[in-house]
TrEMBL record:
Key word Thylakoid present: no
Entry protein name: Amino acid/amide ABC transporter substrate-binding protein (HAAT family)
Record family assignment: Belongs to the leucine-binding protein family.
Keywords attached to this entry: Signal
Organismal lineage: Bacteria, Bacillati, Actinomycetota, Actinomycetes, Micromonosporales
Domain of life: Bacteria
Record's signal peptide: 1-20
UniProt domain Leucine-binding protein: residue ranges: 31-384
Length: 421
């Protein structure tokens, strides 16, 4: 296994910190300022706040002594590589708007003097915000945006800890093959997606993987994420009646879609979502039994976390602190912040190039995370090659793992409408 950073490099960086004054380097005990960039107002504020809570908990794990948590940097207080320096998380509100996100990167880097940026939940915002960070020469660590295009731009300062939509798509099509093996008739698929970076990229990936395994996409409908009504778009899907409907939507649209399906009495045999709005606690609370039967991909699961001591403890701490269960979104933010903290600690510096090099060298085994992954290791494009996904289904108001079989906690309900009967 690779070391987090070579001993020679670490020593050189520590010497550099000691020799530098109070400029861009962090000396012993000096706080490390990190930016957290999420939609804290606007239509996606509930998801943004959930992501923020995961990041805040990771900062608490680093800054305070948590000897009972078996994760890097949990025992002891602060970053030992920087003399016990604490992390200070400085937030920026994207409002869910790409141009606002880019402007916030400017403010956070030039005025707040942050060492790195974490964000921005929505792929479209992450696209522009990370380009601004690239221009400024500051590491940008993405926690939850899954658009494949984000790591195909040749950026040198961009890192994504979570899976891509292609990783998720392959997990979901593996699930469909498993259902076919159990006798389910799955001959066609449809795609229903928001007309934005996240939705358009995800739709393209879905069509690509479907073609590889020989499942025709008989309908592909894009919708305006701000649309007040989705009846006409749902009617287009119903006319083709696919055996499986893939959906990419944020919370408001996800809730609106489920209500529209009910109003039109249209129930596809299976609905497979790409997380996002379907992973928001507001999805289940806003729909009640109408949410039952929906399936979604996930990078984290409370059920799987319960089998891993550190993840179970972190989930319990999250519940105690925020009075709500940890979600996929908050778990991914927690993981991104902790990964960045390990890189800064290994570098012994907040100098941007040193942090970037330490991120490139990072090698965290899966058991030292709270995720059901093989670990955190970035490839040349900045993508974590250890990230993976599972498939969950909403049953009786909570998501249960249904795929893969070795991690499943229950059998899937098919067709989905049976889950409400």
């Amino acid at each position: 296994m690779r070391r987090f950073v070579s001993i020679t490099m670490a020593l050189a960086l520590v010497v550099g910190v000691a020799a530098c004054g109070d400029g861009d380097e962090a000396g012993a005990g000096t706080e490390v300022r990190l930016a957290g960039l999420w939609p804290l107002s606007g239509p996606n504020a509930t998801q943004g706040t959930d992501v923020l809570h995961g990041a805040e908990l990771a900062v608490d794990i680093v800054n305070n002594d948590h000897p009972g948590v078996d994760l890097p940097l949990a025992p002891g207080a602060g970053l030992p590589g920087l003399g016990g320096a604490p992390i200070k998380l400085i937030t920026g509100d994207t409002q869910g708007k790409p141009e606002v996100g880019a402007g916030e990167v400017d403010r956070l880097v030039t005025t707040e003097k942050v060492a790195a940026v974490i964000g921005s939940y929505q792929s479209g915002v992450t696209l522009t915000a990370s380009q601004r960070a690239e221009r400024l020469g500051v590491p940008f660590v993405n926690e939850a945006s899954s658009s494949v295009a984000l790591t195909e731009r040749g950026l040198k300062w961009f890192f994504r800890t979570g899976p891509t939509d292609e990783t998720f798509a392959r997990s979901m099509f593996d699930y469909l093959r498993a259902r076919q093996a159990k006798g389910e008739r799955i001959g066609t698929v449809g795609v229903f997606h928001s007309n934005d970076q996240f939705g358009n990229d995800g739709a393209g990936v879905t069509e690509k993987v479907a073609a590889e395994i020989g499942l025709p996409v008989v309908v592909n409908v894009a919708f305006d994420p701000t649309a007040a009504d989705l009846a006409s778009q749902v009617t287009q899907v119903r006319a083709k009646n696919p055996d499986v409907l893939f959906v990419l939507a944020y919370t408001d649209a996800a809730i609106k879609l489920m209500k529209t399906l009910d109003q039109l009495a249209y129930h596809p045999p299976a609905l497979l979502a790409y997380g996002t709005g379907f992973a928001d606690p507001a999805f289940a609370s806003g729909l009640g039994e109408l949410a039952d039967g929906v399936s979604t991909r996930a990078a984290w699961s409370g059920e799987i976390a319960a089998k891993r001591p550190a993840a179970k403890t972190v989930a319990e701490l999250f519940q105690q602190r925020y009075g709500a269960p940890m979600t996929e979104n908050s778990a991914r933010a927690f993981t991104a912040v902790l990964a960045l903290a390990q890189a800064i600690d290994a570098a012994g510096s907040v100098e941007p190039a040193a942090v970037r090099d330490a991120l490139r060298a990072l090698d965290v085994p899966g058991e030292k995370t709270i995720m059901p992954w093989t670990g955190i290791r970035f490839d040349g494009k900045g993508q974590n090659t250890g990230a993976a996904g599972v498939v969950e289904q909403m049953l009786d108001g909570r998501y249960r793992v249904v795929h893969p079989a070795d991690l499943a906690s229950t059998e899937a309900v098919w067709p989905m409408i049976r889950a409400r009967q």
